[in-house]
Write a structure and sequence with these properties.
Blueprint: H1 2-25, E1 29-34, E2 37-42, H2 56-65, E3 69-73, H3 77-85, E4 90-93, H4 97-100, H5 112-125, E5 130-134, H6 144-156, E6 162-164, H7 172-180, E7 184-190, H8 196-199, H9 209-225, E8 229-233, H10 237-246, E9 251-254, E10 262-265, H11 267-270, H12 277-280, H13 293-309, E11 323-324, H14 325-336, E12 355-356
Parallel strand pairs: 3-4, 3-10, 4-5, 5-6, 6-7, 7-8, 8-9, 9-10, 11-12
Antiparallel strand pairs: 1-2
């Protein structure tokens, strides 16, 4: 009796194992035999996985591997989408928006509220890149408490992944407090555009021993404070190379040569779009233009202007909406009997080309 029961159980187990193998071989339809009947179950296709966002561990890993980090600025939804499609690693919503998008003379004019507005637009367009938002001038210098409040606003209201601050040793304590508060911080040394009024204009830094040493000390102070990366702007290539080799966090260069852990350019500059004249004084020295978008835009606008003035646009191709003939005749009668028709106006003719068949 016991042997018969065991034999039956083994047969059932073999049947279910065979069915399981069949389901693996033919995933589209699984079959289950129950009391001589056959039932079919469709396997629901799995939804595609969303792209995984770049994180700080990726940046650390790439630093060790020597894989270059690609960073670009973006200030609105269209530029963010382009950066996302190009598989850019890091997108910076920079305070440079003040100059290249809002037309100010310096980056000092942009406010925290402005930055939050632009950060939201960029976040809507980016799914893969790590998104960093600049804390603008005047939003973090007063005290660590002010800086933390501003950083929390940029994270919560702007939805960015990290914040960036300009400065070195002087703001190290502030960076430490922000990091301890749970916010990732990117540093920025060398040329710090937000301090343009104090440093006497846009210029390179680190071309003498003292300045080079100061930049090195600033970068180390930021690393010790907990920054996950540091931007090196407008410094000699040899200085950037040694700083990159000495730090264990990634360096992102802009006008700092090819030996940094990665590079960043301003979106409008590298696309060859129209630049603010003050900004153009510095950026062309190190910015390669990968396109001449500004020229194409200017040509398009001028062509549009000319075609509107000479009546070419819109042509029939771009006038797709038509009214049935009988409806048009009725509408014409309404006009002729309306109070809007002046005595000297005659509208008895039928504009055949304006209605559909």
């Amino acid at each position: 009796m016991a042997l018969s029961i065991c034999s039956g159980l083994l047969q059932r187990y073999s049947l279910f194992e065979s069915l399981s193998n069949l389901q693996r071989v033919v995933p589209a339809v699984s079959r289950l035999v129950v009391k001589g009947t056959q039932r079919r179950f469709k396997v629901i296709p799995k939804a595609p996985e969303p792209p995984r966002r770049v994180n700080l561990q990726d940046l650390r890993k790439w630093k060790v591997e020597g894989r270059k980090i690609v960073m670009i600025t973006a200030y609105d939804y269209p530029s963010a989408v382009h950066a996302d499609l190009a598989e850019i690693d890091v997108v910076l919503v920079g305070d440079s928006v003040a100059m290249v998008a809002l037309g100010h003379d310096t980056t000092q004019k942009v406010t925290l509220t402005d930055m939050i507005h632009h950060c939201r637009a960029v976040v809507n367009g980016c799914k893969r890149p790590l998104i960093v938002g600049d804390l603008p001038f005047g939003s973090y210098e007063v005290s660590p408490e002010q800086a933390m409040s501003s950083a929390y606003r940029l994270i919560k209201e702007g939805s960015v992944d990290a914040v960036k601050l300009e400065g070195g040793k002087k703001i190290a304590e502030t960076v430490h407090r922000i990091v301890q508060g749970g916010i990732a911080v990117m540093g920025h040394v060398g040329l710090t555009p937000a301090s343009v009024s104090a440093i006497g204009g846009f210029r390179s830094f680190g071309r003498n021993c003292k300045e080079a040493k100061d930049i090195l000390e600033d970068a180390f102070a930021l690393q010790e404070a907990g920054a996950f990366a540091v931007v090196l702007e407008c410094v000699p290539q040899v200085v950037a190379k040694h700083i990159t080799e000495l730090l264990h966090i990634p360096t992102i260069g802009i006008g700092a040569g090819k030996y940094t852990s990665g590079q960043v350019l301003v979106y409008h500059d590298m696309c060859g779009m129209l630049q603010h004249p003050h900004h153009a004084k510095v950026t062309p020295k190190f910015c390669k233009k990968y396109a001449q978008v500004g020229e194409a835009i200017q040509e398009a606008l001028e062509n549009y202007r000319d075609e509107v003035r000479n009546g070419e646009f819109p042509s029939e191709t771009y006038s797709p909406y038509h009214m049935p003939k009988e409806e048009y005749e009725q509408f014409l009668q309404e006009i002729q009997t309306s109070p809007y028709l002046k005595p000297q106006q005659v509208m008895s003719h039928l504009d055949v080309h304006l209605y559909g068949k």
